[in-house]
Amino acid sequence: MTRTPRHDVVVVGAGIVGLATALELRGRGLTVAVLDAERAVAAHQTGHNSNVIHSGLYYRPGSDKARLAVAGRDETIAFCRAHDLPHRVGGKLVVATEPEELPRLAELARRGRANGVECRELEPAEVRRHEPAVRALAALHVPGTGVCDFRAIAAKLAELLVARGGELHLGRAVRRLTRRRSDVVVHTDPGDLLGGAAVACAGLRGDELARRSGCEPGVRIVPFRGEYAGLRGAAAGLVRELVYPVPDPALPFLGVHATRGMDGSVHVGPNAVLALAREGYRWSIVRPRELAATLAYPGLHRLARRHWRHGVAEVHGSLSREALAARVRRMLPDVRAADLEPAGAGVRAQAVRPDGALVDDFLFVTDEEPDGKAGPTVLHVLNAPSPAATAALPIGREIAARLTGDHRTGVAR
Ligand SMILES: Cc1cc2nc3c(=O)[nH]c(=O)nc-3n(C[C@H](O)[C@H](O)[C@H](O)COP(=O)(O)OP(=O)(O)OC[C@H]3O[C@@H](n4cnc5c(N)ncnc54)[C@H](O)[C@@H]3O)c2cc1C
User: Is the pLDDT confidence value at 374 over 80?
Assistant: First the structure.
């Protein structure tokens, strides 16, 4: 009889969070296997995002997002330099275009400074020196923000993991994780694996996997698609680096921004519309059972009741190029609808509580034996939206520290 393969830790998900975690665990001398349902790494959020190396400006001081984004920015840049991966640190502008946005811009500067992020308020004339085509009443310049290619970073993490003796199994979906004595059984169709512990970094399917594994996550992942449009021809010359609107504190992930990517092309987006399947990258991708479960979730009803106006505007912006152009024109008045062409989409895995609140911070839930009995640990990553790609390296270190009980080597709280 063949023995079930066993590793110190099994990681579910070969997105940037799972891979960073696995590499960190391997670096601590543990045997590790990473499993992903898809045939390539970074197939979902990690491979479909804005590729912005965030600075840590937006997040509530003291939150995990603030702490890990600030550390992650530096580490992402250092990782790209060390492995000769594409990146550029050209800074970004957050621009206020209406008087009511000025106090929010000031609050953003305060938050940024509290998080240790370098930023400077600019008058309109200074804004034009940075971004000549931008119209603004005022702006905040954040020189430390950059762009990179998170898919390339994930591919490098996977390469390093395998080179250092870790295993990577692609095309292998995990059905559920169950605890048995001192091991976690990782159930997959071609056969089970055993882990001394398991970490589930399953992105859009994180809550589903937790529930199937007997851990009630207390949240539901609601998939919000973010669509991008490219600026065609001469219109691409209207943006030098990154131009962002002032975020709405109630819905911080809303706000179409303009980004010059590593290949020189300029994208505007992402918007935020309810995806009709967890991996619903287009309106035409519909999974009726998944959609019915999302629509039946009381948390979504409460969220929709609170923010239905935003929801309607986002759908309008998705269906009408003119509506999207009008939004962009608030910051970049020379952009016309004819300048925009579809440029793909990503789907955010956003955890929503039953009361309709969006989970703001990263959420890691450790499923252990009740009553402190000894037994294997399963750690579920249940909310890792933006800036988790930027923060992936310190997130991986933090998860590894929690798993090995070595908090000294985690990021200091
Ligand atoms: C539109 C958009 C824009 C964004 N912009 C930025 C940005 O500019 N900067 C930034 O820092 N962050 C950004 N983010 C956030 C960032 O992309 C995510 O925080 C990050 O990629 C999360 O990584 P992850 O590994 O947790 O998830 P994912 O990359 O989604 O990986 C999860 C993996 O788990 C696998 N999986 C799921 N279920 C199973 C199963 N049962 N068995 C096996 N495998 C499974 C999936 O196939 C997938 O590969 C953006 C996100 C979106 C959607």
Answer: no
Let me know: does 10 contact 198? Beta carbons within 8 Å. Answer: yes
Residue 108 falls inside a structural domain: no
Give the residue, by CA position, lying nearest to ligand 1 atom 4: 49
* CATH number reported for the structural domain that contains residue 386 in this entry: 3.50.50.60
Residues 331, 336, 341, 346: what is their CA dihedral angle, to the nearest 10 degrees? 20
| Residue 123, domain member (yes or no) | no
Domain with 35 in it: 6-46+151-219+361-409
Q: Answer whether 388 contacts ligand 1 (Cβ < 6 A).
A: yes
- In this structure, what token pair is assigned to residue 217? 């996550």
Q: If you measure from the C-alpha of residue 46 to the centroid of ligand 1, how many angstroms do you get, rounded to a whole number?
A: 4
Q: What mean pLDDT, rounded, does the chain reach?
A: 93
- Per-residue pLDDT of 227-243, as tens digits, reads 999 999 999 999 999 99
Confirm or reject: Cβ of 54 under 6 Å from ligand 1: yes
> Contact at 8 Å (CB) between 254 and 387?
no
> Has this prediction a pTM greater than 0.90?
yes
User: Do the domain assignments include residue 393?
Assistant: yes
213 lines ligand 1 (CB under 6 A): no
Give how many domains the chain has, as a whole number: 1
Q: Which helix (H) or strand (E) holds 59?
A: none
Q: Which of 11, 17, 21, 45, when mutated, tests ligand 1's pocket best, judged by the most ligand atoms within 8 Å of its CB?
A: 45
Residue 80, in any domain of the structure: no
Rounded to the nearest whole angstrom, what is the distance from the C-alpha of residue 237 to the centroid of ligand 1?
Answer: 30
Q: What 3-state class would DSSP assign to 347?
A: strand
